[in-house]
Amino acid sequence: MRAYQYETIEMTFPGTGNLEAAFVKDDEIVTVRGFQSSENTVTLRFLPLRAGRHTFEITGAVRESGIIDVLPAREGHHGPVRAVGTCLKYADGTLCRTYGTTVYALAHQPDSLIDETMETLKNTPFNKIRLCVFPKHFLYNENEPEFFAFERRENGAWDTSMPCFAFWDRFDKRLCQLFDMGFQVDLILFHPYDHWGFSSMSREDDLRYLDYVIRRFAAYPNIWWSLANEYDVIPAKSMEDWYDIEKYVSEYDPFHHLIGNHHCISLWPHERPCTTHVSLQTGQLYRIPEWLEKYRKPVLIDECGYEGNLGELWGSLSGEELTARFWRTFALGGYCTHGETFLNENDLEEIVFWSKGGKLRGGSINRIAFLREIMDALPGPLEPENAGFCAVRGKSPEELEELLASVHQGMRVYYERVLAMDPVERERFLDGQVQYRGRCGDEAILVYCDIQTFGQLRLDLPDRERYTVEVIDTWNMTREVQIRDAHGQVTVKLPGRPWMAVLARKNH
Amino acid sequence: MRAYQYETIEMTFPGTGNLEAAFVKDDEIVTVRGFQSSENTVTLRFLPLRAGRHTFEITGAVRESGIIDVLPAREGHHGPVRAVGTCLKYADGTLCRTYGTTVYALAHQPDSLIDETMETLKNTPFNKIRLCVFPKHFLYNENEPEFFAFERRENGAWDTSMPCFAFWDRFDKRLCQLFDMGFQVDLILFHPYDHWGFSSMSREDDLRYLDYVIRRFAAYPNIWWSLANEYDVIPAKSMEDWYDIEKYVSEYDPFHHLIGNHHCISLWPHERPCTTHVSLQTGQLYRIPEWLEKYRKPVLIDECGYEGNLGELWGSLSGEELTARFWRTFALGGYCTHGETFLNENDLEEIVFWSKGGKLRGGSINRIAFLREIMDALPGPLEPENAGFCAVRGKSPEELEELLASVHQGMRVYYERVLAMDPVERERFLDGQVQYRGRCGDEAILVYCDIQTFGQLRLDLPDRERYTVEVIDTWNMTREVQIRDAHGQVTVKLPGRPWMAVLARKNH
């Protein structure tokens, strides 16, 4: 039997009941558990993370063993995404810059609409999507899905021991399709927008559900686990429940996919060891450096508001604003997620992209593509630079002394005042002073000017290198080299419009 | 001798030396002190705040007494501005909505430029100006003035006992001109942008200077005292110095003009009894309700950034953004101040309006005029409405219980989460949740939609009244009545563009 590193291996056997398989390479054993894939078949899925000869042994309802020769990864296959420091990287070490979008209830729409959505997604810059396992009942989301994750008992309650195969087969198909399209899938395991009872099942049902999801989906390279969307507004679940859910997912996933938990009001304790990254709902992007510093994990702005025209704050951003939120986030070393919430005045049944999919029409999409082109060409990840007064943030007393010694003498009193502030008031003051600047060592320095209509910008570049300085109009999508061999202090001329950026890249 | 209420009375006598005059009406005595107005004249200025017969008695270098019949205020004369609760009102009780601008070093420019500036100001919506007594040395401000407040001693030091009459005569002329143009003058007594030593004089010199300013200018109806611009970054002055300066100004000003102190980093303790209003430098306009609540005084955003194209954060706002800052401020019941900082690439000597005056060219001016038209037509002052999650702010436990009982059941868990947050984190979270809504009792309700591109907005109007609901495009300066007899819950259609506002006015 032959297979490829980072590609799912699937084996299906007739019958019912439990199956378990141990895959062994050298001294490493990975145990995977099978799942009932139809009324009379059981399926085992394995994801080889390493190339080379594996042996396997299946126990339970079937007893079988064998050898798999796993060939090195084929082009374009990089394995599951991992959190490495504050960055996302594929298992093979390749940097993974995710440009997310959101179609929460994608899996619960009619096939024709999902097909249309897939076509739409192919022509976008996105490579990550957030979507829910359970259907969504919320504003603009009142259609009943055709299939649910489980069959019902006679009393109408969900029977979590009886998966609805049609539901999961459809889900599989779409996950594979998304994989082929290059998408990471941030799979939302629970959420509060519910009138079917999925958000308030018993502990036993929760775990049986998770067990099935993990058995079925964990061998997909592109799966991430989002424990919940807005975990904190699911009244039926306590923090203890969430910790147990996290532990369960973490322990039973043989391939160690990313685990995050997305909040509405109260941040998840992202410092928890099994939480791999910081999944946030916020428009306060100026706080990204603080969160990076605090958690030392990748910061994903999984919800910063959506481009659209709803009557709600979260669904009424302009294309300019959502584009700006992407730039703010990426300039500060975070990852941002898109969503679109346009309502047609005359639609009989609303199809709002952020939930159901369909077509996109926002102004931000092309601009995110333009951003992606620039980001993907950077030699490495950006780290935020605390510029201006924010330079005092996260500094030790010695570093602060150094900072004070380095600032222009006339400015010293300003910094002294900042340092003398009450700490709480200082943080709120500094929230208004953040500049969107990131750097990739001495290789690249990015300044996103945001709403500022600078006529010029002073850059302090390392003196020992030479840089090519580009002026970027992030909205009109133009870039122009202004200085070719810049070093030290340079002044970049800017057109006095908002949404500009300046990128200095080291010459090689 | 006849005079008018709220108009300055001036008497000049030959000679030198101290003069003091007691003006008596009924049982009220107001003592004013004269000032050397030229080498051989002394001048006394008095501002009658009440109509009716006054007697006066002059003592000192001149001894004279007499009667003044003060006639009731002429049209357009309302007296000095006072702080009444969180509002500004003229002495006669008329609401005073100030629309400020900034020409810090106006008084230190050549006459031709000041004349040009005055012409410019006549065609603006502004009725308040911030300007400095001392000249300004700062970026884009390096011209030496022709006259200074004092003559120099032989050793080059300032002789605060020797006013430079040419300087003060020019100043008088411009203050009177501004008064005739309807401008309040927020006179900045100290500031840090100095290379002449005015910001680091001795205590004795400071007080002698203040003494002269007060004797000379306090009888002008349109004077406000701004103790300083950026008081906190004048290294030579301690808080004790500022308290003494405040005390001095407050005690020696017979007409009790407004007293404020403007900060850069550290807020002035605006709760001080002699501080009449809250003068702020901030772009964090979402904090206005908090400051109104805390100080119970008028909140003046005296510096929120300037429209222009400088390389600095504070001098590079678009017209759209400065216009938005005015709307945010006014919608929340504050007062906002404009400034313009355009740099011409090819100017040999820069004339940046915010400091020197000249011509205005920004996009915000006409929009501020449009805002003013709308605000001035409101029947009374707006008070901020803490909408959305911010409704929890400043509420007692009983009020919170009431709030929780009133919110839609599905939303209750969200509010509970907000209430359960750590208080510091909650404030920072709520900073990002502020909506710009103000109301004038049941008379008028204003929602400024800011950057939100709402396609619709739900308004909760009192059910017992009938309202005319207008949709306002604050940037394109259009207003359109959409509903004529609205009451209770209404849905207003909006065009999905940013910078819209909705105004509901009670029908009469």
Topology diagram in text:
2 copies of one chain form a homodimer.
Chain A: E1 2-4, E2 9-14, E3 19-25, E4 28-33, E5 35-38, E6 41-46, E7 52-60, E8 64-71, E9 81-84, E10 87-90, E11 100-102, H1 111-122, E12 128-132, E13 150-152, E14 158-163, H2 165-180, E15 184-190, H3 203-217, E16 223-228, H4 239-252, E17 259-260, E18 278-281, H5 288-295, E19 299-303, E20 307-308, H6 319-331, E21 335-336, E22 340-341, H7 353-356, H8 364-376, E23 383-384, H9 397-406, H10 409-420, H11 423-431, E24 436-440, E25 444-448, E26 456-460, E27 467-473, E28 478-486, E29 489-493, E30 500-506
Parallel strand pairs in A: 1-8, 11-12, 12-15, 15-16, 16-17, 18-19, 19-21, 20-22
Antiparallel strand pairs in A: 2-6, 3-4, 3-7, 5-6, 7-8, 9-10, 13-14, 23-24, 24-25, 25-30, 26-29, 27-28, 27-30
Identify low-pLDDT runs of chain A. Answer: none
Number of distinct helices of chain A: 11
Largest sheet of chain A: 6 strands, antiparallel
Structural class of chain A: alpha/beta
Give keywords.
homodimer; 508 residues; alpha/beta; Immunoglobulin-like; TIM Barrel; 6-stranded antiparallel sheet; 5-stranded mixed sheet; 30 strands; 25% helix; globular
Write up what this structure looks like.
- The structure is a homodimer of 508-residue chains.
- With 508 residues, chain A is an alpha/beta fold.
- Chain A folds into four domains: 2-71, Immunoglobulins (Immunoglobulin-like, Sandwich); 96-376, Glycosidases (TIM Barrel, Alpha-Beta Barrel), CATH 3.20.20.80; 388-434, no CATH class; 436-508, Immunoglobulin-like (Sandwich).
- Chain A contains eleven helices and 30 strands.
- In chain A, strands 23-24-25-30-27-28 form a six-stranded antiparallel sheet, with helices on one face. In chain A, strands 1-8-7-3-4 form a five-stranded mixed sheet, with no helix packed on it.
- In chain A, helix 6 packs parallel to helix 8 (364-376).
- The mean pLDDT of chain A is 96.
- Chains A and B meet through helix 10, helix 11 and strand 26 of A and helix 10, helix 11 and strand 26 of B.
